Amino acid sequence: MTTKMRSEIAEQPAALRATLDALLPRVGEVERLAGQTRQLLFIARGTSDNAAVYGRYLAEAHAGRLSTLAAPSIATTYRRKLDLDGVLAVALSQSGRTEEIVETLAWAKDCGASTVAITNGGEQSPLAQAADLALCTLAGEEKAVPATKTYTTQLAALAVLGLGLGADVNADDLQRVPDAVEKLISDPGDLEAVVEGLADKPGVVVSGRGLAFSTALELALKLKEACYLHAMGLSYADLLHGPIAVVDEDTPAILVAAGEGPTLAGTVALAERVTGAGASAFTVGGGTALAAAGTAALNGPDLPEWVSPLGLIVPGQLLTEALARRLGIDPDAPRGLNKVTQTD
């Protein structure tokens, strides 16, 4: 029986094409709004927060815009007013109905920020209605609790945002993303070996750096929520500052990297260190160099680093779904979780 999660993973190429077709013509709207601002504030929780990490790295590495992740409790719990003049506040919510995120975006506007919403909830969702500009993704209804197509389309919207910020990238690269994702779905690499390598393990460390850091965080979250693993998502720089001590025969590492870019060499070196210490290093992406340094490899997309996270997560999604089934867990409905999470 095919799970809803697996079906929705397969829907991603179409969802990405539809989203890019809808949002790429709106780059000029983003440019006009962003032209009034100097820096970015990303407002999100959960999977959307991981997407925001991609947005932050893209804005800083390619558009030269200082960016940060908001602490919504400053708005909703401490109720402090800040000076956000010159700030572009970008709120992400798959449903567009998470009250904390809607309230925080309204707070940001009240503090002087220009506001953008990224949501799959449509133009009439509370979040879209609260924003100066709404970039609505077209993933369609997502029924499985673990986010897949709503996450990758959020990344697509953030890539469009990056173009509007003036990122020094080739916009044509985005048109290659749906086909690259389709290829990964049909050929994710040595999926069975990685599933078996994790099936008897209580925990795993997932690590990447730079633009791939968002993928490491998102894959760790998926393994926690759908497979009940103690999964830790870390930048490899932070991993080397102490937590690498937990990587051993019982705690393997999953290492994520684009096939090019300044963080690839360090990820390869980390894989060699992990395997040299007798632990397993399962790799995602990173081309032949990272695959050769690891224990078993999942494929990455044939895409430039700046858009690689839109594809890098896909083998991780397939891994999560397959591992959950291997463990006897229904990945569509993990215990204790709902599709829309409300926080105080």
UniProtKB/TrEMBL annotation:
Gene3D superfamilies in UniProt: Glucose-6-phosphate isomerase like protein, domain 1
Pfam family, one: SIS
Domain (SIS): residue spans on this chain: 29-171, 194-334
Entry keywords, A to Z: Aminotransferase, Repeat, Transferase
Catalytic activity, EC: 2.6.1.16
Keyword Metal-binding: no
Alphabetized GO MF terms: carbohydrate derivative binding; glutamine-fructose-6-phosphate transaminase (isomerizing) activity
Domain of life: Bacteria
Example of a GO biological process term: carbohydrate derivative metabolic process
Signal peptide span: none
Family annotation (SUPFAM superfamilies): SIS domain
The protein's name in its UniProt record: Glucosamine--fructose-6-phosphate aminotransferase (Isomerizing)
Taxonomic classification: Bacteria, Bacillati, Actinomycetota, Actinomycetes, Streptosporangiales
